[in-house]
Amino acid sequence: MAKLRGRGYASVNYPTGMNLGGDPSQALVHATTTGTFVISLSSVDLGQGIKTIAAQCAAETLGLPMENILVDTADTDTGPHCMGTFASRGTHRVGNAVIMAAAEARGVMLEVAAEELEVDAADLETDGTGYIAVKGAQDKRVHITDLALAAHFKHGRTISGRGIYLKEPSVPVPETGEMDPDSCQAHACTVAVVEVDDETGVVEVLELFNAYEIGRALNPAMATQQVEGGAWMGLSHALFETTEPYYPARDHGPRDFAGYLMPGPADLPVQHSLLLERPSANGPYGAKGIGEMTANAPIPAIANAIFDACGVRLTSMPFTPERVLRGLDALKTEETC
Amino acid sequence: MPSQIVSLVVNGEHREFIAAPGATLLACLRESLGLTAAKRGCAQGACGSCTVLVDGRPEASCLVAVETVAGGSVRTLEGVATGGDLDEVQSAFVDCFATQCGFCTSGMIMVAEALLDRNPDPSEEDVIEAISGNVCRCTGYRPIVQAVLEAAARRREEAVTR
Amino acid sequence: MTYRLAPVDTTAFAAERGGGDLTVIGSVVQRSDARGHVTGRTEFFEDVAPPRLAHLKMHRSARHHARIAAVDLGEALAVPGVLRVLTHADVPNNLYTPLKLIGVGPDDEPILAVDKVRYLGEPICAVVAETEAAALEGAARVKVTYEDLPPVFDVEEALREGAPLVNEYHGQNHFIYEGHHCRRIRFGDVEAAFARADHVLEWRYQSAPIEQAPVETTGCVVIPQADGRLRIHSDTQACFFTLDNTALILETPFNKLRIVGGTVGGGFGGKVDVVVEPIACVAAMATDRPVKFVYDRAEEMQVSSPRAAERLYIKDAVMNDGKIIGRKITLYVDAGAYARHSPYGVTKAAAHLPGPYAIPNVWADCHCVFTNRTPSSAMRGFGVTIADFALESQMDQVARTLGMDPLQLRLLNAYRDGDVKAHRKVAEGTALVEVIQKAAEMSGHELPETYRRMSSTTREGL
Predict the structure, then answer these.
(1) Per-residue pLDDT tens for C75-91?
(2) How many whole angstroms from its chain centre is CA C348?
């Protein structure tokens, strides 16, 4: 009886967006008369944080503080079309649509400010504090609250913008599979360190080293949430999860969280994560989609670490104690032969 | 069996409502009292999303028949913030980025409140034990553990300042 | 610092990173939804409580594969509080497939079973009642008489001649891709590669279905409006996708429906299907009352569509120096009884092959197979996660066979800018080399100088 340690490796890429029928999302932006910019969407936040990311993209493009941004989603009566939250597309598609809409609104904002300040719009700049100022003459400025009021009551202008991002349809060539389905690729590499108990078959993941290339971390704390939560799910898939433990037999399917096992807070490995940025040419501020990729590399890395630890090659998921023990038994049988 | 009038002290207020026979505390909180912070994640007592404090103890309110706690005191997430100010656990959950989809958050905060009420200086193991009946599918748990430890530290610091 | 923060590396792609003038992007900004979550004020769909809310529960198939000889609703209708029991006859357009919105057909799935059930748990009748308890009681009292048919559960058995036919709308136990029996990748000459390879290595990989397991189950509340429209509070991952599919099933104008959502207690792909809204709308129209239909945990676990089980055979042509010169892959995706999103997932898998490596000869047959199990559908990493398990296990087995360092094998074969992938897309913005180098560095795995100097933007070291 022993606890055997091993290391395993895996490296993966992951497509942002997947488009077989055209993949658009829209955003509309308008300023209230007091200078709040409302971003209208129909995009769904599953917890990944699109509401926050859309607001960040709008604030950055408009050159205004986050406090001036409201995101209104998802109501099909008021929000423009979005294909939905899947295929790691949300940040990429919606972010780009918001940037386009905010850029148009910014253009109007600067035009109105130029009228208000009696200068050329090209001479104006923003610094993220809420003021629109003449470059090099910081005392000649107007605050967005006053400007939005003037736009409505004095200049008769709507400070607004429309945005869409469309990845055109790609129809695969049936003979060869030639296609252009995605917008960019994110990357990840996992090194897993595991300990296998050769008496019980239990695998414990001790450490995960993860390097992720994600284009741009728009919000590094939220990117960390995604990569660490995703790596947890990968670990969970690897060791525990299935609705059909004896697939393809349909028996013994769990019907609750007591039977459908997932690692709890006591089962966590030490996670070391690093973010790399190679901005995508078509991503919002270079960002690539990362929501899905984060769960992938840990699974084979753990399989490979189990082999490294005890010589058992598990080619069926999940890597349950039963499978580990059967593998160890098979090795013993081989030895005796 | 007819419906009956049940009275409870909920978040410090005396409340009375009509409960159908066998009605769960969760259903009464959500449907009769309009307190929807406690969530139905499984209705099997296995996910912790519906956790509230009954006389100070964390309970899966989906498994509690309301008549068995009649006359008792119930605390829900709605009763945690005072006058709109977040308490230490709530603010630590925000600051530690311990929420993603938010569905497990109510239950997580309530088990944390119960833990800190009885143990102001918990170890990491204490926190892990306290939240181990609550399922989170998004975070991988570590930010939640960190938030509860941070909340404990903040609460101890407040106690010293006071 | 109170929050966890993965460091951002500034050394790799330093010239391309830029971003020094950004004020909000790249900064840690607090989540706009966090305060609502910690106070319990975030409104999820089930927190909506309209007056006179009725509840819907489903009577589901108790068989894997059977003809429905008779359905007796008498006892169910007699349960106090039961308002209606809906059958397929109550659904205006009972047959659908969700991807018809992007031109994928045929319609292959009934909203409520007609004359046959194709998986355990398939919906047959929807019971609408005053209370959840009455709806459950009613659903339990529906009596269905079955005539059993032989089921098929294994993907390769399902494709054999003489296997029981799962889904008559397809006519065979697999999806047809533009006249082909599977989604194909044909790139270079894989057989020639096997002929000249130093090693030909083949292994099989298998996964089992995986549940998305969001803590909030799939559901909706439908509320008839003053203007005759329906407002649908839903935890769908795709509002308009759900709206459009629901309108087609209801045969109503699209603007009769309004979806309100966007705040979801976890999705992970499981809430892309359109499985609760259409029948809840039928119920709301039939009773002229608000109706809630939400899966219980057991339904979420066993009836909601999981990540598909997949089987892969991977055969590699490998040279002694570690270069992989050919890769042949046969993939079977277990779609279960209905297509849902699987035809798309299989194509996504095909585009991902042969993994992030520059392999000049690739052959792949990716089969979307129908069996008598719960339909599978999207989940985080759709089409890719299980392929990666297989591909990266394969890489490890190749490295072991050659006695090579597993990271060096990957670096040697890693795709770089300008490589043409098997689906004939030119790679750009690649960074596999760099994530491998960084992971090696982080974990103390030493790489020789030539491998540390490799780059995604050059051919150095190859």
Answers:
(1) 999 999 999 999 999 99
(2) 11
Distance CA C296, CA C294 (A): 6
Q: Is C63 on the interface with A (CB under 8 A)?
A: no
Last residue of a domain, one of B79, B113, B145: B79
- Summarised one tens digit per residue, pLDDT across range A128-182 is 999 999 999 888 999 999 999 999 999 999 999 999 999 999 999 999 999 999 9
- Average per-residue pLDDT for chain B: 96
- Could you tell me the pTM of the whole model? 0.98
Residue C286 DSSP SS3: helix
CA distance A120 to chain C (A): 23
Q: Which domain holds residue B108?
A: 88-161
Domain spanning A23-167 has what CATH number? 3.30.365.10
Give residue limits of the domains in chain A. Answer: 3-16+182-336, 23-167
Q: Is the same domain home to B64 and B119?
A: no
Domain shared by B93 and B35, yes or no = no
| Strand ranges (E), A179-262 | 184-197, 203-213
pLDDT band per the 50, 70, 90 thresholds, residue C18 = confident
Q: Which of A42, A256, A297 sits opposite C298 (nearest CB)?
A: A256
Partner-chain contact B41 C215, CB within 8 Å: yes
Joined together, the tokens standing for residue C92 give: 């205006």
Note whether B22 and B62 are same-domain residues.
yes
Q: Which two tokens stand for residue A256?
A: 């609750």
Contact B96 C3 (CB under 8 A): yes
Which residues of A fall within a CB distance of 8 Å from B145? 265
Find the closest chain A residue to B141 by CA distance: A265
- Active-site amino acid positions of A: 292
B8 and B75, same domain (yes or no) = yes
φ/ψ bin of C121: left (φ > 0), alpha (ψ from -120 to 50), beta (otherwise) = left
What is the CATH number that goes with domain C183-210+306-429?
3.30.365.10
Q: Per-domain residue ranges for chain C?
A: 54-148+217-302, 183-210+306-429
Provide the angle, in degrees to the nearest 10, between the axes of the packed helices A321-336 and A298-310: 40
Minimal Cβ distance to A224: which of C5, C24, C352: C5
- Do B116 and B55 lie in a common domain? no
Give CATH for domain C54-148+217-302: 3.90.1170.50
Please give the Cα distance from A274 to A223 (Å, whole number): 10
Q: Which CATH architecture has domain A3-16+182-336?
A: 2-Layer Sandwich (3.30)
Is there a single domain that holds both residue B58 and residue B101?
no
CB proximity under 8 Å: B 75-114 to C: 76-78, 80-81, 86, 89-97, 99-106, 109
> Inter-chain contact A181–C385, Cβ cutoff 8 Å?
no
Q: Is A308 in contact with C400 (CB distance < 8 Å)? A: no
* Chain A residues close to C239, C-beta within 8 Å: 42, 44, 74-76, 79, 82, 84
Q: pLDDT of A261-272, one tens digit each?
A: 999 999 999 999
The total number of residues written for chain B in this structure: 162
Record the tokens describing residue C267, joined without a space: 């999705």
**Chains near A (3 or more Cβ pairs under 8 Å):** B, C
For the record, the structure tokens of C189 come out as: 């000459």
Q: Is C39 on the interface with A (CB under 8 A)?
A: no
Picking from C45, C244, C388, C451 by the largest number of A CB atoms within 10 A of its own CB, the best residue to mutate is C388
| Chain A: residue whose CA lies nearest to C216 | A46
Cis peptide before A263 (omega within 30 of 0): no
Where a domain ends, among B14, B48, B79? B79
